[in-house]
Amino acid sequence: MANIKSQIKRNRQNEKRRLRNRVYRGAARTFIRKANAAIESGNLDEARAAVLRAQKALDKAAEKGIIHKNNAARRKSRLMKRFASLLSKAA
């Protein structure tokens, strides 16, 4: 445990931020998981809606600085690649 006043305060701030960031990071993970499940199920309308929700969650997390913007872009790219494969199978 820190015994310097500024470090004690910094620890309190870090804990608050960690809890706040956890919400957005967890939501992004959840929506990505749901989108992947929807893509696997093969239901086009359900998959499209789930992918849009996942993209929105990733954008929000990147906007708030919780994940890096390139990390969000990479995850969205992978998700869209899976969705595109579902579209090509459907066509």
TrEMBL record:
Residues 1-20 are annotated as: Disordered. It holds the Pfam family Ribosomal_S20p. InterPro entries: Ribosomal_bS20, Ribosomal_bS20_sf. Residues 7-20 have a biased composition (Basic residues). Binds directly to 16S ribosomal RNA. Keywords: Ribonucleoprotein, Ribosomal protein, RNA-binding, rRNA-binding. Belongs to the bacterial ribosomal protein bS20 family. GO terms for biological process: translation. HAMAP family: Ribosomal_bS20. GO terms for cellular component: cytosol; small ribosomal subunit. This is Small ribosomal subunit protein bS20. It comes from Thermanaerothrix daxensis. One of its GO terms (molecular function) is small ribosomal subunit rRNA binding.
